[in-house]
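Limitations
The structure tokens in this dataset are predictions for the assembled complex, not deposited experimental models. Users should treat interface geometry with appropriate caution, especially where small molecules or nucleic acid strands are included. An illustrative entry is reproduced here so readers can see what is and is not provided.
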Amino acid sequence: MAMRWVVLGVAGSKRTRGLRDACERVGRPAPVLVAWRDWLRDPACLAAALSAPCVFKVEPPGDDAEVHHALVARGAERLGRPVPPPAEPGELAGTDLWFAGFSDAMDRLAATLAQAPGARPVNPPADILAMTDKLECQQRLQAAGVPVPRLLGPVADHAAFVARLDAAGLDRGWLKARFGSSAAGVVAFRRNRRGQVSATTSAHLVHGGGGAPRLFNVKRVRSYHRPDEVRRVMDLVAAQGAYAEAWVPKPRAGAGHFDLRLLALRGAPAHRVARIGERTVTNLHLDSRRADPADLLDVSEIRLAEDTVRRAAAVFGGSGVIGFDLVVHGPRAHVLEANAFGDLLPGLRWGGRDPWDAALEAA
Amino acid sequence: MTISERTERFAGLQVIDWKPGEPVVHQPGQVHRLSMDYDDEGTMAERLTAYLDAADTASLQALVIGAWGEAHDEGPTPFLEVLIERAAELPALKALFVGDMTYEECEISWIIQGDYGPLLTAFTGLEVLRIRGSTSLELPAFRHDALRELAIECGGLPREISEALGASSLPKLETLELWLGTDDYGFDGDVDLVRRVVAALRGPALKTLGLRDAEIADDVAKWLAGEAWVAGLQKLDLSLGTLGDAGAEALCGSAHVARVPVVDLSHHYISPALQERLRAAVPGVVLDDAQAPDDEDRYVAVGE
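Predicted assembly:
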């Protein structure tokens, strides 16, 4: 008898549909969906769903604006700060409050799971939390000897970021939002000795009618060159919690460069895709092209990527599904990010199975 | 995706990366690219020296130089001097590309170039020269009796370069490709200046004319539409620029342009109705990558 699946997710999302379709393909009952918004209003509904033996998967709260604001409000309460007005769609604001609320949710989830011995989480809440804090995640990987780009530490604003570059003797680097998701709040910064600067990012600065400047996350990467705009963008990202990281060159493919998304299923490297971008940020949804890594890397480089992912996955040994972003370039591999929700790779197959088919089988 | 999409070509050859320590072996039809990563130690002059030491220099026909260390701050002069010093060892070198860098490696407007006068003097047999980047680029007025193809890719072509080209003589020139760019990135010319450059360099051999990435694309198109010699071209390339209906209208009405086998207008701001008319009037027209005008602003494809 196949184990029942329970998902904490967002109704109608690509993720929940992907898993439901995979269940259908193998004749399993559809997963039981507990919506984030329902759980936040009524914690008992999840406890009831988890009371019988099941596999339990947490999906991200996603684009549900109500859930986002509920988490921000909960985070504000936890940090003793005022609750900001709800963010507009796509607005990059209050991610530190959101993360505090998300932490609270993961703590509650862990408590619920402690009372539900028959529920087996795909990824435990503590791991999900550690991977959602990108700095914490990189520090853990580094401490375990997994190669990551050189970490230059947390920074509170543009000036602090530049000071870190100065101290490290660098003329380029990344500012990364600590609590962002995918490419949100990631800024590639460069400067030259003629005093020019550039910031390449999917965070767009919007000056709304006399109000303070705000950031919106969009799907098109752009570059800022005016020093005042570069500073403002980076200040707004850093105010929500950010860190500086050294720039690791990505290998070239045509007129662009690529990195890899490699999925670890129960610690073993599985689905993989190369993401070729022409504008520095290669995350999949930002106009990048997909390619088969086997067409771009030789056998030894693929093996290096797999070994690196194995070692990185062991750092989160309790987690069954992790998406790793990494750069493999000649004899070196660096893990850029571990993503507890990194399996949204529709249509990507490994051993004939898409990520949801494979997750069902691995569980 | 297939391997071929990864492939780039230069001077009809497939570009292959060469890494220090590897033997220098050319398969037929290949050219090596020497390129340094952002965090590589050493200089391109050292890397080039090692490459030439390992190569059969007498038969080396082509070379691509990609990113050199800190190309956003340092120019190519040190490694161009290596080539110049060893010019006598390189009698077959016919094709050179300096600056094959991506946006990630260095924004095109930040690439520091150098003075190409000494190189052109030393390599009298050079047939193809492609340069990416125009910051600090220097070019004297020159005469070269072998050059078949000259290309300068940049975000903005400075007036001094155009003036020098307008006083040059290249009797064998078959392909001229200039990226005019925008005034934000150093373009300070106008269509009259471009006209003078083309008048100076247009000989009987000219088959391909590219005036690309131009914010004055409409003016360029209006001028070219009235030039009878255009009918003798094999390819007219006005791609990557801000061509709109005004320029398209002129091209539509030109019997000269209609006779050119390939008229590449890719990355354009031409309205659907005029695109239809162009297709009917100019059989060789290529209209890929149509841009949606955003608040009446138009952008060239490659600026920063």
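Some entries come with short summary sentences. For this one: The first strand of chain B starts at residue 9 and ends at 10.
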